[in-house]
């Protein structure tokens, strides 16, 4: 995405992000390298959960039973699976949010966090 920074906009010397792209999706589709389609959680018996897209298995999560907190461990594994399965949608929303926020000025620290998080998700 195309960004420019504006310094001292508020008279305090803070640097803000300004977005100068014309489309929130202009870069997002070009950089999407993960499996396309809806990612879904497929919970099986025996503490195994699959993350699937287009009927393909993308990941397998095994619950690490310790004999004491099995219910808690199962809930944790299921929560992890739900988080992983929602990752592509969250990445797309981050990109769209960066476009929307780019229409306004945001502080440099927030801009850096947003840009770094998108880069991390894209493996950059």
Please supply descriptive tags for the structure shown above:
124 residues; alpha+beta; 2 domains; three-stranded antiparallel β-sheet; 4 helices; 6 strands; elongated; disordered N terminus
In words, what does this structure look like?
A hairpin with a 4-residue loop joins strand 3 (39-43) and strand 4. This protein has a three-stranded antiparallel β-sheet. Strands 3-4-5 form a three-stranded antiparallel β-sheet, with helices on one face. 9% of the residues are buried. The model is unreliable at 1-29 (pLDDT under 50). The chain has four helices and six strands. The two termini are 14 Å apart. The chain is α+β, with helices and mostly antiparallel strands. It is 40% helix and 24% strand.
Report a brief summary of the structure.
The chain has 124 residues and is an alpha+beta fold. The chain has four helices and six strands.
How much of the polypeptide forms β-strand, as a percent range?
Answer: 15-25%
* Termini separation: 14 Å
List the total number of helices: 4
Oligomer: single chain
Q: Nearest-angstrom radius of gyration? A: 19 Å
Return the average pLDDT rounded to an integer.
Answer: 77
Structural class: alpha+beta
State the shape: elongated
Number of strands: 6
Order of helices and strands: EEHEEEHHEH
Share of helical residues: 40-55%
Q: Mind describing the biggest β-sheet?
A: 3 strands, antiparallel
Number of domains: 2
Stretches with pLDDT under 50, minimum 5 residues: 1-29
What spatial order of strands do you see in the largest sheet?
A: 1-2-6
């Amino acid at each position: 995405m195309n960004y420019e920074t504006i310094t001292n906009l508020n008279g305090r010397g803070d640097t803000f992000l300004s977005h100068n792209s014309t489309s929130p999706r202009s870069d997002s589709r070009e950089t999407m390298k993960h499996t396309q389609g809806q990612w879904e959680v497929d919970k099986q018996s025996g503490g195994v959960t699959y993350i699937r897209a287009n009927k393909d298995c993308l990941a397998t999560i095994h619950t690490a039973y310790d004999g004491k907190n099995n219910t808690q461990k199962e809930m944790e594994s299921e929560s992890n699976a739900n988080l992983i399965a929602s990752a592509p949608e969250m990445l797309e929303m981050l990109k769209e949010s960066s476009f929307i926020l780019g229409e306004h000025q945001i502080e440099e620290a927030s801009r850096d966090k947003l840009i770094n998080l998108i880069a991390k998700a894209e493996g950059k």
